[in-house]
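re: ur question from yesterday

yeah so i grabbed the chain u mentioned. its 176 aa long if i counted rite. heres the sequnce exactly as i have it in my notes:
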Amino acid sequence: MFSAGELVVYPAQGVGKVERIETQEIGGVATELIIVRILSNNVTLMVPVKNAKNVGLRGVYSAEQADEIRAYLQDRSDFTGYSGQNWNRRYREYSEKLKSSNLRDVAYVLKELILIGKDKELSFGERRLLEQAMGLISLELSFALGLTQAEVKKSIESLFADILHAKTSEDGPVGD
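ran it thru and got these structure tokens back, copy pasting raw so excuse formatting
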């Protein structure tokens, strides 16, 4: 169970703070709700306590788990790329992974898109998914590691320095 003031993660939305837990009547039934304010966009979510686990609401990763995500991002052995897959199929797969409560799924999307961007120009939709994945990962890891989000982004970018540097020298700065 979560408590007021605790940092939590809501899939596809990111890190939020539990503002309070309250009971409201919904459809004539008293329902206990976790009220969460998402930090990145100030959106308020009301999550029924009994469904919190089903929707993937969880605590922020620990520093140890954050280090595991960084190691996963660095490991390129599972890179499949875009061989034979059309963009629509990849887009659906990546969108589903961004909704996952497992940060490793989000990291997979980030890693795949950065690596795909090494060989071809990313489409607008791909760049948008890349930015969403980077935002979700960098914000959570910033809380897990006690760093700023900018520091975490820079750290992640350094894991792909060989790729991002090559793109910068060819096309100008990446992500600007």
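noticed a couple things. The longest helix spans residues 124-145. also The chain has a mean pLDDT of 89.
anyway ttyl
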